[in-house]
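Reopening this ticket.

The earlier resolution said the output was attached, but the attachment link was broken on my side. Pasting everything inline this time so it's all in one place.
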Amino acid sequence: MKSATTFLMFQGQANEAIQQYQQWFSELQVESLTYMENSQQVAMAVLHLKGLKMMVNDSVIQHNFTFTPSTSIFVECESEEEIDSLVAQILEGGQALMPLDNYGFSKKFAWIQDRFGVSWQLTYN
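Inline output:
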C-alpha cells in the first residue's frame, strides 16, 4: 500500500470550504490546488492539517448523497480557548450533533457538522 488519505468530495463548495478551513485552522496548509477549466470549482486540492492529509474536490457528477456525520475529522485542541473558539466558528451555519460539554471521556468535547456537511469532533482534556 502506498498511502491512505481522507478524501472530501463536495458538489460546488470545495473552494469555499478550503477558504473557510484556512480561517478556522491557521496551521492548515494547501499543498496543491487546481481548478476545473474556466471555473472556480476544485478539480483537486491536497491539504495538510497537523499531520492529516486531505484530498478535496468538486464532483462533476451530481450525487444523491453527501457527507455522513459518522465519518468525522477528530481534532485535539491545546487549550480551552482554542476549543471554545473553534466550536463557535464551526457552529456558524452548522449544527451541534453533541454540543460542547464534559461527557466524562473529555473535559470539553463537541461533535459538530459544519455548514458544508463535514463533521468535526473536537476535544480538550
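Reporter confirms the inline version is readable. The domain at 6-58 is CATH 3.30.720.100 (Signal recognition particle alu RNA binding heterodimer, srp9/1). The chain is about 20% helix and 40% strand.
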